Amino acid sequence: MLDKQNIFKQTVLAAAIAGISLTCATGANAESGKLEEIVVTAQKRTESLQDVPISIATMSGEKIDDRGLTSLQELTQYMPNVIVNAGSGTPNLFIRGIGSGTNQGFEQSVGMYIDGVYAGRGPLAAIPTTMDLERVEVLKGPQGILFGKNTIAGAINITSAKPTDEFEGMVEALYEPEYGSQQYNLVLSGPLTNDLSGRLAVRHDATEDGWWENVTTGNEGPDRENWYARGSLKWVASDTVLVNAKYEYGDFESEDSATVVYQSDFVGQENIFGGVPIPVVSDRDKGAGDAGTSKTTDTEVFALTVDWELDFATLTSISAYSAYELFSTGDTDITATPALHRTRWEDYESYSQELRLVSPGGETIDWIAGAYYQSNELDISRQIYALDFLESGPLSTSALYLPDESAPTVPTLFDQESESWAIFAQGTWNVSDTLRVTLGLRYNEESKDLDKVSDSEGLLVRSATGFPVYSNPANSESIADLRSHSFTGLSRDEDKVTYSSNIQWDMTDNAMLYASVSTGFKGGGYDEAYSSQGYEVRLVNFLTGAELGATVPGNDPSILEYEDEEVLAYELGAKMTLLDGAAELNAAVFRMEYDNLQTSSLVGDTFRVGNAGESISQGVELDGRIWLSDRLTVGGGVAFLDAYYDDFSGATCTTPQNMDPANNPGCLLEDGSNIVTPGEKGGQNLKDETLVFAPEWSASFFATYVIPVGTTMELVNGLDINYSDEYYSALDLDPNTKHDATTIINARIALASTDDSWTLAVIGRNLTDEETYLWKSDLPVTNSNSYYGVPEAPRTISIQGRYRF
């Protein structure tokens, strides 16, 4: 294992040299132009990006529209050290290698805020929030003082476009002819009365054919049809009172999402399960599940924001209601064998209220103070169906038989209510014109109450397979029910104090240095996926019958709980405006130390939760842009990330370690020795191993070149290159699930009017047709050295038309 500290020091030096080289190399080419200022609200004030002592990645709504980006997942590909991944079925947000696992009991480690309203659950993050925006800001590192408890890795701050005082509108269409993808956008905005204005934004997108085929069912996908609408009102109630109201509604439907079994021990075995083969399809555009997937999500958000300018400060009130309903079905085993199917219902409601006082600014002491309250209710019901194919073939005996598809096998209910409240304050002492010191403090309290039931009466686990089965009454005395449990009235309460501090020094009028120390936390909770007790024995290989034994404690509700996650973070940074405003260069060096990092890993058919002992995320980030002429602007960013477990014993062993411990050591017994017998219970020690979704290097580059066409038109050419190093998405770091390094090239050629009233463009994404995956993991249930992945779309070429009026 290489010395982590030496690597870190060498990279800091290399980054510094690279930054100096960039400045020198571009200085001779710059002309008299200036870059447009980027404005953000990362500190609950409107400020220039170059004045904020935080590492921030931004993208304007105009750039999002121009690139045809339809989701946060696509947008964050342009932001090094940021990953939004929905491969496991629910969007998961990662910054600097820190994020949340796939268990539905988790909240995000990266808090997402839309117009000041917290969207903590994954389905709310799936709203197509890239439509009709002012900007997206990604704040890296803990943001616990002003944004709250679940920003332990960072925050995504999204600002939608507001109603205008003059009438305007926009219609836009985006069409991809090869796979039938289409998107239509409509925006109308303007005054309704002298003091009241409104804005309406509507989007419809759908895919007719899709680029993926299920060779078992013959269906094509991924198919989707989404409707989304946002209505906003702005009321100037008086000279000192401004009221903004917003209502959002989304209806999102998808079918036949792409999954590929890219490696399996079942290849060529035609007599498994009564002659049903389990084929492997190596092509990313083909899969072989016996049933398609479907998901329907309905979301709604209402927010009311009131700003009241007082003599000494501005008082802001944000009241919000957020909710969604989700229903999904799918093939649990992801194979052509009709083995296990699943359904899931999810219902979520949240109410929140924030009151905030912000001083005018420009005083010796600038300050912010406020209070926050939120209540949530989350209800989840999931069922797994065992199909009747197991009544024949080598897994069936006269003593055991399975229910048919109409009988739910493992129904699980998860009903949780939670409340949290906080008070916070932050003050900045302007020591001099060039020196500022900021201190912040937040006190949080949170409670969670849970009822969880898994009612599988009459369902049994066959010791050779781990599948639930009915017993034959003739010999029922030889087996017992091992799956039912009922945990009601569970409750946990916690309170935390977090702080932040930073110092800023304006080295020159155009260069600012900062240093910060901050803490953050994410509350503990309950494992939504837990569904068994007693002894659970799963089959390692259906062909050999080798068993994997795992002892699970009985009716002990403590097994459901996972603990708080905490962080102590350090950051040094510089923000520089160069070449008389024609260039900007920003740099940050960071180290974040985590205790009890919340994780999840695939065990059988569900993702189970746990806490990693200690984790470190450290690295360097550089970003910049330069105006080279009236026609040419270039920019980009690069990040080095060294994110690893500092203490994590007892992690899930890989399938090769379980199946063949002699040739794949590392699955350890409690005494530290390697397991010897396949299927023997053990755990990995992942100390000094990488975190998931933590590529060592990531980078993004863009260039825009404008060519005049006559006096009223211009040809706008854009090129984007996005690079990601290799990384893992599966917690056990199985080498069979490693994601390869990728370079994605996108381009856009647009003919537009010089007044921006109309645009006609061709957009190419993934032009080199790189094969990439959102997610790779063990094939559920089988424990058979088999793996599946969720592939991303291949190369696409779209036509975009836009008209503004």
From TrEMBL:
Pfam families: Plug (PF07715), TonB_dep_Rec_b-barrel (PF00593). InterPro entries: Beta-barrel_TonB, Beta-barrel_TonB_sf, Plug_dom, TonB-dep_rcpt-like, TonB_rcpt_CS. The keyword rRNA-binding does not apply. Keywords: Cell outer membrane, Ion transport, Iron, Iron transport, Membrane, Signal, TonB box, Transmembrane, Transmembrane beta strand, Transport. GO terms for cellular component: cell outer membrane. It is found in: Cell outer membrane. Residues 281-767 form the TonB-dependent receptor-like beta-barrel domain. Residues 49-155 form the TonB-dependent receptor plug domain. A motif (TonB C-terminal box) lies at residues 788-805. GO terms for biological process: iron ion transport. Residues 1-30 form the signal peptide. The keyword Membrane applies. It is a multi-pass membrane protein. Belongs to the TonB-dependent receptor family. PANTHER family: FERRICHROME IRON RECEPTOR-RELATED (PTHR32552), TONB-DEPENDENT OUTER MEMBRANE RECEPTOR (PTHR32552:SF81). This is TonB-dependent receptor. It comes from Oceanicoccus sagamiensis.
